[in-house]
């Protein structure tokens, strides 16, 4: 039985979406046991309306909540009774194998780092979401946990990302790219030039530099960069999509003919929306923490939560923390 | 008369597109004189087919060319007879007010820095393209000239970008954003945290941090970052657009209904393409060089070259180099 700890109070649609998603997951996976952390009476009330296996769920009372706008390190340190902190604490104590939250990203990273802590041999845990590409997805490591990095951090991000894509996503020999300002080996800033040399000496499928235009090309399974670049990129992707869709909409509404065309083409846009749907991709991982930590999207609906639970279950099933520890011991990064 | 020096041999469609664009510009602007630099007989042959004012054009013979894949600094240093190097040399010697090339970006930056050199008080020239937004355009400084930056470089990028948008694009009080991994003042890596404090003390309209999702929102006229981040972002924008359009196309072709819709909606996509058309935006500037240096897109057609020439003319007309020198003297950056 995989024991998963879930923050019932985090996210835009909490607790409804979290509880609905949890119940869906319990129905789909008979080998999971979940702790739902949050206000007992609120969770109890939502659960009342649901059918589920009562033997595989336990409510853990936590009276406080961390707000999205709070300075995360301070919140994690002082709000001892927040659902995020109580859940992280239980995870650290080994009461569960993995923790799932749709709450504040900053607090999830701070809690993962300060409470659950890093796994042995890991220098810095990194936040890693899967971005959609034309052929499947690409894991972006780091998208915001470490804004200032040493080259060896990037080397470890690459190794950890590779282990994840191989064992959890099932890609036999993940192609790893270093996000850089040119394709040639000699390109880069002082960080990436040095990281390139370290990556060449690493026992993974390092295929070279990934330029910005190639990140979503499907030519990479993992791309690594410092958390500053990753954060700006991930949010810029959102910005580009909303810019382009805004422009398309404006143009489509510009004449009667294109309006009719748009109405007929609508199923295509719905299909596209589904393909780009983050809810399919589960959450971002805090790779390198001493337990599975999954940060689901803040606007997660029930399906997204269910998928994040699936991801946490697979992460646990594949014993990923142990694999990372062992791999980093066999391939020491200095 | 504004004297502009044009690299006739650089770019995917050189020399045809360069010469056609030059002739278009000569017809539109009667106050420019151009030097076309490249193989005399080749330029002469293309010019033969055109009607233009022969008194406002002069061919400067240059026998060599810098290829796109060449290591740029080395190429600029050794290929003394390349059209790019001859043109830069003439610009440095004051034979012209501005230089335009659609050749290698690296060579344009290297040539600008090593031959034309930086203007007085400028610490580092920066490459600055205009990106389209929902409301006009935003100047991105730096998109690749300086991959490792000190905070004060970013401060100067902001000042120079602001001067450009005010004087050449005509925006009264350009809103300047610092590209960062969060909106709050305390967010950032070591570079941007320090740059934020410097920018606060600068006499420009600094409106705070710009997150990735806001870069194209139209809320900024200038956004600044180091050249590594800028390069990755600019190419990622290309990658996002081609990813999204690829997905849309695939979805539109997925059923008979959406195919008909797509055919009817086609004018909208053509309109959109026009709005995103880089040829409308001219080229990227090497801001802070001692003369106007315009790097047109490698795949520039004649219209794009004409617009880059217009940009060079406006840059010269507004005496931008002197304005930058003076402004940086009045507001010393340390």
How would you briefly describe this protein structure?
With about 325 residues, the first copy, chain A, is α/β, with parallel strands linked by helices. Helices cover about 45% and strands about 15% of the residues of chain A.
Account of the protein in words:
The structure is a homodimer of 334-residue chains. Chain A is an alpha/beta fold and 334 residues long. Chain A has 2 domains: 169 residues, Isopropylmalate Dehydrogenase (3-Layer(aba) Sandwich), CATH 3.40.718; 150 residues, Isopropylmalate Dehydrogenase, CATH 3.40.718. Helix content of chain A is 46%, strand content 16%. The first copy, chain A, contains 11 helices and 12 strands. In chain A, the strands form 2 sheets. A 7-stranded mixed beta sheet of chain A has the order 3-2-1-4-12-11-5, with helices on both faces. In chain A, strand 11 and strand 12 form a beta hairpin. In chain A, helix 4 packs parallel to helix 5, helix 6 packs across helix 7 and helix 6 crosses helix 11. The model of chain A has no long low-confidence stretch (mean pLDDT 92). The interface between A and B is large, with 64 and 65 residues.
Q: What is the terminal-to-terminal distance of chain A?
A: 37 Å
CATH superfamily of the largest domain in chain A: Isopropylmalate Dehydrogenase
For the largest beta sheet of chain A, what order do the strands appear in spatially?
A: 3-2-1-4-12-11-5
Helix content of chain A: 40-55%
Mean pLDDT rating of chain A? 92
Number of domains of chain A: 2
Query: Greatest contact pair?
Result: A-B, 64 and 65 residues
Helical stretch tally of chain A: 11
SS class of chain A: alpha/beta
CATH level-1 class of the largest domain in chain A: Alpha Beta
The SSE order of chain A reads EHEHEHHEHEEEHEHEEHHEEHH
Give a count of the beta strands of chain A, DSSP E runs of length 2 or more: 12
Oligomer: homodimer
